[in-house]
Amino acid sequence: MKFHIHTYGCQMNVRDSEAAEALLVAAGHEKAAGEDDADLVIVNSCTVRQKAEEKAVGKVGNLIAAKKLTGLMGCAVKRLGEDVFSKLPKLDFAVGPRAIGLIPRIVAEGRFPRLELGEDLMPEALAAHVEEGGFQAFVTVLVGCDNRCSYCIVPDVRGHEYSRPAREIVAEVRSLAAHGVSEVCLLGQSVLRYGMRNPAWDERDAPSPGGYTEAFPRLLEAVASVPGIRRIRFTSAHPKGCTDELLRAYCEFPQVCRHLHLPVQSGSDRVLSEMGRRYTRGEYLAAVRKLRDFDPEFAVTTDVIVGYPGETDADFEDTRSLMEEAGFDNAFVFKYSPRPGTRSALLEDDVPTAEKERRDQVLLADQERRGQERNERLVGTVREVLVEGPSKRNKSRWSGRDGGNRIVVWDCDEGSSPKIGDIVRVSITEAHPQILLGKISPLRNGTDF
Ligand code: SAH
Ligand code: SF4
Fold first, then answer.
1. Cα dihedral sign for 342, 344, 349, 352?
2. N or C terminus: which one in the chain shows less Cβ crowding within 10 Å?
3. Nearest atom, ligand 1, residue 236 CA
4. Would you give the end-to-end CA distance of the chain in angstroms?
């Protein structure tokens, strides 16, 4: 069968789709050129906000109308359970985020409709996969989440936190490197908690009593020791995990990119406490200061929610001022969406939609200006850029990312086209809020790592 997977949501979903693809290929199916060309189309869904869920469900509805064999996978399946078939009566099958290992069997058996919510982890679905010629890979190090932030449905749909044994992760990274991967991104909802919960730890892998302090930096060290791995990224982080040991890892292992995605959610202590985020504004800003004291160019990006129940103008202004003080390099702003079963869903969703929209626009405009200012500081520096390919907008230009995950675009001299996956040095000539422009630099003494 020719299949196509359409993915919504976060990097974990991107990785899960890669795993499902690899499992289907191993079972003898073939990747289609696109949706129109496919006999089987699977939609990988997100449910973190209601709109995200509606998009995925709507997409499946359209595919059913086109009479394709259709499957739905991912977080929305776990949230909807049996209701998925009342919403989509003609859906062929639905699998939860921990059941993707079952997809090939479900397709082979052909007994539709079928729902698999999947409570247990399946190792075959945990392993990373890259396509032939791929140079970047997502590697799951921690699944699920036990934090239970008041607004968040992730723990309900992705289950309890579980850290994969370090040995398994390192073996996987070795095999990725042997297939030409030079950049890995280690994934976990709260990835710095790595090693804090795993019923199967043996003595060697046991987390230190200090919890946050040891296990993740040790994992970074182990991954950095794999020959061929030139860049290590990871996401998402929590300020409590920004320990001295983590900084030491940045310092000792140049492969570890100086970028941290550190979702803050709000700048108001009152809102942070209601959300159950377990840090104050002051603690969050101290963590950012620590990173920037270490390296002023350290890139820090974030997620923010506007319009949390009871968020006042003063709370919102606290978020604005925190974002200014933190000097984020990039920020994703989300309008609060109540999710069934979460603690905050019991509170009145009392910030009007128009006000959520206004707050969203204000923060985005602030970030646009801030992004420009932060990027202007980099004009005249040389960035080490991992080549991703020709620029989407202008094919005579090339595009890649620096260690801070900033998009860098440069003109390519004729006859000297770089190789995808290589690291080149680009001297920055122009800054924009989301992009740096430059030219290939022959210099050896750059300022980036
Ligand atoms: N594990 C990550 C976040 C995963 S969800 C972390 O805690 O760092 C990704 C983002 O979606 C969150 O950071 C949050 O900003 C947003 N989000 C989660 N639940 C939401 C909700 N109910 N309404 C609006 N945004 C939400
Ligand atoms: Fe959701 Fe909080 Fe867990 Fe992130 S840490 S996935 S926001 S519960």
1. negative
2. N
3. 8
4. 45
Q: Measuring CA to CA, how many Å separate 193 from each of 13, 144, 146, 215?
A: 20, 11, 10, 8
CB 144 near ligand 2, within 6 Å:
no
Planar angle of CA 301, 303, 337, nearest 5 degrees: 170
Beta bridge partners, 137, equal 184
Ligand whose nearest atom lies closest to the CA of 356: 1
* Number of other CB atoms surrounding residue 256 within 10 Å: 22
pLDDT digits (tens, 9 = 90+) for 58-91: 999 999 988 889 999 999 999 999 999 999 999 9
| Maximum pairwise Cα distance, the chain | 62
Question: Under a CB-based contact definition with an 8 Å cutoff, are residues 205 and 166 in contact?
Answer: yes
What distance in Å separates the CA atoms of residue 229 and residue 203, rounded to the nearest whole number? 27
State if residue 339 touches ligand 1 by the CB under 6 angstroms criterion. yes
Please give the backbone phi and psi of residue 188, each rounded to the nearest 5 degrees, phi first: -170, 150
pTM: 0.93
Neighbouring residues of 162: CB distance < 8 A, sequence distance ≥ 6:
121, 142, 143, 144, 197, 198, 199
Give distance in angstroms: CA of 129 to centre of ligand 1.
26
Q: Which two tokens mark 439?
A: 């030219």
* Strand-pair partners of 382: 427
Give the tokens for residue 330: 């990039």
